[in-house]
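Journal club side-thread
Mid-discussion, someone asked how the predicted structure for our own chain would compare to the paper's figures. Pasting it here so we can look after the session.
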Amino acid sequence: MTPPTADRWCCWTVELAARMLPAEHRQRYAVEFIAELYGMSHPKQVRHSVQLLSHAWALRAALDAVAPIQEKARRDTRGWLLCHLGRHRWAQHRNAEVGGKDAVFELCRRCGRERQGYEAPPPGSVLGG
């Protein structure tokens, strides 16, 4: 009994489908698509490879939609860690209901924490907190 093989034309077709995907996903999906062909009969391989090629743009759109969510999660995790270590990103805000020097306060852009000490950092300070 001969081992199951994938047809060359079908392999080329699924590799073409994988080339339509974002660069960071191409190799993984190409290998997965080719692996799916093994064990199928020739007519099933042809049908499957044509379907993969026809749905490649939909898969690309789905992968592109997930990328910003993953990037935001990475930024949020990094931001949480930096704020937890005391490396906040302070931004000045003004309270319109209060006048004078009490109207100005600082909030962290990442975690929303209000700064308790309002003294200015020392002149020439590079790592002002």
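Post-session note: The chain has four helices and two strands.
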